[in-house]
Amino acid sequence: MLFPTDLLRRAAVLLAVATMAGSSLAALAQQTDQQPKRQTQPQKPPAKPRTTTTAPKPSEKAAAAAKTEALPPSQVGIGTLAKQAFMVDPQTSSVLLFKDADKPMHPSSMAKMMTIYIAFEELNAGRLKLDTRFRVSERARNMGGSRMFVELGSEVSVEDLIKGMIVLSGNDACVVMAEGLSGNEDSFAERMTAKARELGMTGTVFKNASGWPAEGQWTTARDLAVLAWRTIEDFPKLYRYYSETNWTYNNIKQDNRNRLLKTVPGTDGLKTGHTEEGGYGQATSSIRDGRRLILVVNGLTSMAERAQETARLMEWGFRETTNTTVFRAGDTVAEAPVWLGSQDKVPLVVAKPVQITAPSGQTVTPRVVARFDGPIPAPIVKGTKLGTAAVTLPDNRVIEYPLEAGADVPRMGVFGRVTAMMRHYLFGWLS
């Protein structure tokens, strides 16, 4: 039996406990409001931690999509922060991204690609060797900006100058090369512009070998993409220098400014650039599973933004588009009639694969028309160009590929030729 005093004492204890519990709950509720993402854990940790997978909220997906759509738009392809942008699949000539790609812009250090192209051309022709040495002038030694750190009066090999221009983006290396090949930089710049016209770079004028800011020096994103592709296509053995990630000269180690060489799979070139007027730019090429894409951007605000935007665009290009093979190398596209040959027809084949670019997952059937002048007189030698295959792409552009004779077709003997000519003149009107 409990006495009144015991009852009062127990009631007081229960009241205190309730008050403490209420205070704790209030504090917990307040803590939960302030930190909504924090979750309470079991008092006894389980043997395996429990994880909670939360699906992204629709609002988060919408926000991500809105962010992408909010990027400055392009005339072709997705939006981009770059002021100028151009992406092309050179195998199919398909333009995947176009944003003011024909608008004049400062080439910055991407101009070095032309200096390097001419050096490669001289090496291929045998007029220059990798161990040829050029002397460093005072003008070269005093160049500002990114440098290779050549020493005045020293002699530098062509191979070292190539690495200095590509990996270190050395303005001094460009001057040494220009003076070594043309005597002075002004003459070399004229040669650069002439070569640009020869390659089809109609919107480009060079004033120096390095891309150092100069009045009247311009290029376009499309032109730089043309130069990038011609470099890869014309000099496959020398192009390897573009993939070097770092190099040491004069006991000074420097990293290649092309960060994508280490971050984007398949990237093997080319050049970065920066000027106060033009911003940050880059010409990039990547290859995956035999497919190559070339991207040129310019007008970005920082090195970090350049690296991030270039990587994003390159990943988009590989992810959202794919190539379909229409004809493999050696496939017969059509057969052409033969005049006075040992056989009536000759197969017309393509020497290189014919591919088209289309959105990933989309099946396309291009229209292919074989064009040739026939009948073709014998004898015919295998590999002789006899016509073209006109392939209509999904965007209605027409690309022509050469057609070659797929077999030798000897000429008929004398009796066979006479018989064939008589048959033609006697009965040809019936055909």
In words, what does this structure look like?
This protein is an alpha+beta fold and 431 residues long. The protein is 34% helix and 25% strand. It has 11 helices and 17 strands. It has a 6-stranded mixed sheet, with no helix packed on it. α3 runs antiparallel to α5 and α3 runs parallel beside α8. The longest helix is centred in the N-terminal third of the chain and has 31 residues. The radius of gyration is 34 Å and the shape is globular. It starts with a helix and ends with a helix. The N terminus is likely disordered.
Low-confidence stretches at least 5 residues in length (pLDDT < 50)?
1-58, 60-66
Encode the helix/strand succession as letters: HHEEHEHEHHHHEEHEEEHEEEEEEEEH
Specify the structural class: alpha+beta
What kind of assembly state do the chains in view correspond to?
A: single chain
Largest sheet: 6 strands, mixed
Using the alpha-carbon principal axes, give the shape.
Answer: globular
Radius of gyration: 34 Å
Strand order of the largest sheet: 14-16-17-12-11-15
Q: Which architecture of the largest domain does the CATH hierarchy give at level 2?
A: 3-Layer(aba) Sandwich
Helix content: 25-40%
